[in-house]
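Incident review: delayed structure delivery

Summary: a single-chain prediction request sat in the queue longer than the usual turnaround. Root cause was a stuck worker, restarted by the on-call engineer. No data loss occurred. The affected request and its eventual output are reproduced below so the record is complete for anyone auditing the incident later.

Affected input:
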Amino acid sequence: MFRPVSSKANFPQIEENILNLWKENDVFKRSIDRRQGAPRFVLYEGPPTANGSPGIHHVLSRVFKDVIPRYKAMKGYYTPRIAGWDTHGLPVELEVEKELGFSGKAQIEEYGVDRFNALCRQNVMRYIKEFEEMTERIAFWVDLENAYVTMKISYANMVGELCELLGADAHAVTQAIGLDSRIGRKYLSPGVAFGGPLPLRVGPERLVRPDAVHGPTLENPRHPLPAG
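Output delivered after worker restart:
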């Protein structure tokens, strides 16, 4: 009636088998899709900075970030979860400066701000594969294929739009997140010019809806978000 059970269970292999089963049957996506139309639950959380290898603290925090939405999903809530990567900040610059042997602003300007920024963008993304592998191995259910990246123009525009909906100065805020913290060099590409209460979008990327980027949606019927 029952299959024999070995006393020498290979628990890591059992976990791998379960992970493969979930992946082959697209269980995570199906668990989201089948709850379309149900009350939405959003867990607001900060994305990891992708300029270093993941550590045990990332595992611990991701367990909590996974357990809570899973529980709410089991209670019938619609719980979309979108991955994200924090690509702004001084740690990125410091690591690149260390690799180049620089010790200050003057050396960066002599090297070339554009060249330095390009290295920062490369550096911040180099560890994403490690984070993705860790995320999948610990069974953290989150959409990695559509992850948002904070250095992208679309993300900066979305933040500016949300600030406008909240009554903040979107022009100042979007400029702030688009500028380097120390010497004012822009992370945003030349395709975006700033003017008026919102950035003037003249580049190839359109404004994106918040729920397509991170999961949270700011619902305000007086200020409908543009489609797309």
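Verification: Residues 152-228 form one domain.
Action items: add queue-age alerting; document worker restart procedure.
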